[in-house]
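Researcher: I've been going back and forth with a colleague about how Single-stranded DNA-binding protein might be arranged in three dimensions. Neither of us has a model we trust, so I'd like an independent prediction. The organism is Tenggerimyces flavus, in case that matters for your notes. Sequence below.
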Amino acid sequence: MSAETSPLDDKNEVTLVGKVSATPQVRELPSGDSIVSVRVIVKRKGARPRPNSPTIDTIDCGAWTGRAKKTLERFQPGDVVEVTGALRRRFQRIDGGAISRYEVEVSGAKRLLKAA
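Model: Here is an independent structure prediction for Single-stranded DNA-binding protein. You can compare it with whatever you and your colleague have in mind.
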């Protein structure tokens, strides 16, 4: 291990494999940049901790770079995909104040299985 790395170094890496829930959305930002967003449904594995607990997670994913945006735009609802990136906390202003949410900032993505 080099002097520059340590097993205690911070790491923010996410890999999701799941189904696309809906058609990807393209949003234009006030800066003129655009973002492509998609939601990925991921099944929870393992025993349910209590009755009626959720069996899936729906995770927001957003792409800011050209290649990742083009890939996400081609996804269709029901496609099984792999998305890699980093978890980011985003803040937004709404009428009642500010809210925060988490999303995966996509650095790479690929379709594993096309929807039927």
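Researcher: What would you highlight for our discussion?
Model: I'd start with this: The two ends are 46 Å apart (CA to CA). After that, consider the following. The beta strands are 14-20, 25-28, 34-43, 56-63, 80-94, 97-113.
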